[in-house]
Amino acid sequence: MTSSTPEQPAAVVARLRATFRTGRTKPLEWRTGQLRRLRAMLTEHGPDLAAALRADLGKGEAEAYRTEIDFTLREIDHTLDHLEEWLRPEPAPVPPHLDGAEAWTVYDPLGVALVIAPWNYPLQLLLAPMVGALASGNCVVAKPSELAPATSAAVARLLPRFLDTDAVAVVEGAVPETTALLEQRFDHIFYTGNGTVGRIVMNAAAKHLTPVTLELGGKSPAFVDRGTDPDAVAARLVAGKFLNAGQTCVAPDYVLTDPETAARLEPALARAVTALYGDDPAAAPNYGRIINERHFDRLTGLLGSGRTVVGGTHDRDSKYIAPTVLGGVAPDAPVMGEEIFGPILPIVEVADLDAAIGFVNDRDKPLALYAFTESAETRRRLTDETSSGGLGFGLPVAHLTISDLPFGGVGESGMGRYHGRYSIETFSHRKAVLSKPLV
Ligand code: NAD
């Protein structure tokens, strides 16, 4: 169903729940069949979807494939390869007082899941949770982001042509439509976006005791240790930060380093920006645009928070902001007061590792923490002494491309996790079974 057939939220959920009750979504064949259909949609309509992503975010085709279309295909293939094994009942040891009994767990699908996606990776962040929900045998209501209207329209048009429309519905819309959806009783709500709306979602879910997964954001720090090769670090930081024009939930938000390392890193960052995007990033095919004027104005308002090392230029008509590095940024500068979510990389100077760990622990738990260091002891201390959704040494962003790793936040960066088998844990109930013969 799409918004062109204005079915009311209550009717959508009732229709899907009726399908779930028939048991049709439970067999492995239905689940793998839906995943194969989703796979076909992505391969047959890759160019249409890439065009929609370009219209919404100025995403280059290669980046659209790498971070959205092929990313989702990999998640589908990994799930198809392992689903049968993941769903196998798992035996549990039985204590002596239940001698003669057997015990095991099975995964029950939950029912009807709601997936609410944001605009920054509007395809991947809608479809990757759906892969888990369908693989777990659920019906799904998919709510794409209204701030990425071309992608929203494309999935609303394509998904019903490929998937079982009695089990999967797309509801397009903004706050009123999402609010109406959230009044319904779902069996799981999977929300990706900001913490303010995350709280609205959790409140709505509480009314029905519906479990939630909240994939939120925050400021993900990148610690750069003394003695690291500045050009090697800069190349990785620039690639991770300016991907999708910085509008990536796990992008390094800011750099924490000592003054000497900062002095060597700053020119290296400028060289790395030129190496990746040329002298005029506005003309680079692999550099995106800001989603809308509101975010453009918010971001340009942060450019004065430090000394411009590279970038700083912008153009409102095309929503272009150059890849920008700011040096000597004070911890209380405006750019440090909120998740940047755009192409601005501030460098905050701290005395040493102890100060960096203190800085991180004084703030909200981030979605990711990154560190560039040659020291095993520094890696150990960061692992043991900080808390974050994920931890990346030497390479930002890429941990989320490993399907066998759980992806999710902690504290202000969210709750719950998904990808691969962790999606099955999220979208199923692990049921305990005990069986003891009567005689
Ligand atoms: P957004 O504005 O597209 O909102 C996300 C969804 O919430 C949309 O579908 C929207 O319709 C819905 N929504 C908005 N206001 C609502 C309301 N009042 N009531 C009900 N629903 C509402 O996206 P956003 O929040 O700007 O996304 C950016 C944030 O998402 C950043 O903080 C980023 O870090 C985070 N994020 C996290 C992840 C992750 O996987 N953890 C991934 C991407 C983005």
Automatic annotation (TrEMBL):
- Aldehyde dehydrogenase domain location is 3-433
Q: For this UniProt record, give its keywords in alphabetical order, as a comma-separated list.
A: Oxidoreductase
* The keyword Cell wall biogenesis/degradation appears for this protein: no
Which superkingdom, per the lineage?
Answer: Bacteria
Q: Which residues form the active site?
A: 215
Pfam families per the UniProt record, alphabetical: Aldedh
The record's annotation in PROSITE patterns points to:
ALDEHYDE_DEHYDR_CYS, ALDEHYDE_DEHYDR_GLU
Q: Which residues cross the membrane?
A: none
Q: Which InterPro entries match?
A: Ald_DH/histidinol_DH, Ald_DH_C, Ald_DH_CS_CYS, Ald_DH_CS_GLU, Ald_DH_N, Aldehyde_DH_dom, Aldehyde_DH_NAD(P)
Keyword Isomerase: yes or no?
no
Q: Which GO terms describe its molecular function?
A: aldehyde dehydrogenase (NAD+) activity
**Similarity-based family:** Belongs to the aldehyde dehydrogenase family.
* Name of protein: Aldehyde dehydrogenase
